[in-house]
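Running this now, will post back.
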Amino acid sequence: MSDDLSGVPTSLPADRIEGWNKVIRGILTHAASTGPDLNAVLQAAPDFALGQAIRGLSCLLLGRAEMVSVAHEAHQAALAGAPATPRETAFVEALGDWLVGRPSQTAARLQAVLDQTPRDALAMKMVQAIHFIMGRPQAMRVSVEGLIEAWGDHPARGYLMGCHAFTLEETGEYARAERVGRAGVALAPDDAWGLHAVAHVYDMTGRARAGLDWLTGREGSWAHCNNFRYHVWWHRALMHLDLGEHDIALAQYDAEIRSDKTDDYRDISNAASLLARLELEGVPVGNRWEELAALAEARSGDSCLAFADLHYMLAMCGGALEAAAVKMIARMRATRPANDEAQAVIAHPGLHVAQGLHAFACGEYSSAWVHLRAGRADLQAIGGSHAQRDVFDRITIEAALRSGYMDTATGLLRDRQARRGGALDGYAEARLALIDAARREVV
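Update: finished.
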């Protein structure tokens, strides 16, 4: 037994603990080295139950159908490894909960670990990750705020502050989120999550130029990252988009956001949502949809996360893969939620939103509005951030506009503005001006 970087007892001998600490640091910093570091730990200690549990949980966070069987293998290896502490047992049981379709119970078990050992950085970050993909920012905030007092001298305090900043932003406390996020990055300059939490604040408060000032010159803060680095570049491209700098946004799409043509759902979501936003502004995106649509079609049967499904739908519609889009809607319609939480979200609101996106792509704007409106109230459940889900908000507004529902579109824009602390971004200003002009013409 030896203590990890949080001072928590771990069933690894002292000569292997630094390798495990590298894994924990990698999870905190979204480092590209995390996977190889975890593999090295498990190669040396295949019976390390906690390591196997993290392997399984990490597989499920990927939202890929083929990784579910790997997560099952990791669970069996963890059980065979005989967890050595109550904490390790909790992590293994948490993995088992998710494997039977109950990620909320997974988060609850890991929260119980934090209640007992509030300085546990690994449990802290995993709870944040799980609630994030379930669309539960308030639960993220409650969890992290329960730890602050115990982390006064924690070596990873900056990363906790980055997580806190993100939860503050997602729950509407923008000024405080910016202060906490900046202070956290000062403590942990390689905390890409905290850095991007501050970028979220600038997005939500309509301050694109200040957001660019924040990110520019700090590229080293996310250069070490896994594919999360593409997401930070996506934020930067959104800021250029808001300023009307479309050529720069497209250049960053090519050079950074899709520099690696992966089929990871998070990478596809970055790309598809940016292209969709550009097209809503009337910007030609050339043949960029084609490679994205082909990858989305290949993944469209995964049925792991509604958030992934809806971005696959965006990509397939953008690439005019009509048959693939129809097939995916049929699969979503046939979803039987039973006791599986992710499948329940796919059934609703996922199906309605997917139908709305497809109708919108087909030019059936009234039908798109009906479906998108039906899914809108529960859209938070698909997970992700407000900034990520905003592409669906924009398409809903556009469907109302194109159906001639000017008062409805105005109400949607004002609701969006209220959720952004009263701020208007370039998108909202342009749409409100368009509505105003249309009304003057009628008069």
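The mean pLDDT is 97. More later if anyone needs it.
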